[in-house]
Amino acid sequence: MSTPSSWINRIHAYNATPFSKKVWLAMLRIPKGKVASYQTIARMAGSPLASRAVGNACNANPFAPRVPCHRVVSSSGEIGGYAHGIKKKIEWLKKEGIVVRGNTIVDFETIEFQH
User: Fold this and answer.
1) Catalytic center residues
2) How many CB atoms are located within 10 Å of the residue 56 CB?
3) What is the rounded CA–CA span in Å between residue 60 and residue 109?
4) Average pLDDT over the chain, rounded to whole?
5) Which helix (H) or strand (E) holds 26?
6) 35, 73 Cβ separation under 8 angstroms
7) Sequence-ordered alpha helix ranges (H) in 60-101
8) Which of 31, 55, 67, 102 shows a CA-CA span of 20 to 30 A to 85?
C-alpha cells in the first residue's frame, strides 16, 4: 500500500514524541476495510508491550481521519475509545465496509490487518 509522502512528512514535522510518530506511521499502513489491534500497532512501532501507549498516541492524533486511528481496535474486536466519540469511529468504519454490531467488529479475525 502506498502512502502519500505528504502525510509522512507532516508526521515527521509535527512536534510529538518519537513513539507517537511511529504509531501514526504504522496506522498509515492499515488499508481501508481492515482494522488492527492496539497490540499489532505496538509491535509495528517497535514496542510490543506498549498497547496502552498506542491508545494514548491514537487519542493525541492530530491528523484523523487521514491517519486512521479509527481503524485501531482492541484485540477482541471491540471498538474501544475514540477521541472523536465512539459513534464517529463506528460511522467511519462502516463507511469503509466494516460491519459493526453493538461495539464489536463482526468477523474481526477475517478483516484484521496483520503485519
Assistant:
1) 69
2) 14
3) 27
4) 94
5) helix 18-27
6) yes
7) 86-95
8) 31
Residues 6+ apart with CB under 8 A from 106: 99, 100
Rounded Cα distance between 34 and 71, Å, is 7
Concatenated DSSP letters for 49-61?
T-HHHHHHHHHT-
Angle at 33 between CA 84 and CA 96, to 5 degrees: 55
Residue 112 sits at φ, ψ, to 5 deg, of -70, 130
Number of H helices, E strands in the chain: 6, 4
Give backbone dihedrals phi and psi of 99, rounded to 5 degrees, phi first. -90, 125
Q: Which three three-digit cell numbers place residue 45?
A: 512501532
* Length in residues, the chain: 115
What is the value of pTM for the model shown?
A: 0.92
Q: Where are the domains of the chain?
A: 5-111
Helix (H) or strand (E) holding 36: strand 36-37
Amino acid at 104: T
Residue 10 pLDDT more than 70? yes
What band does 53 get if pLDDT is binned at 50, 70 and 90? very high
